[in-house]
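One-letter codes give the sequence; the integers encode the fold. A sample entry reads:
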Amino acid sequence: MKKTCLKDKLLKGMAKTARQEAVKNANTACWVYHHQDKLPEKVKDLRKF
């Protein structure tokens, strides 16, 4: 019984971290999208929107 509880905690922690990363990436993508004119040329080449 303890083992499954531990697994649940671990998975919840991983899910939380993954969600935070996803939100951060989404925010970055939004920022890049809205500030395209201010980006340096190199970044414009790398962008794949």
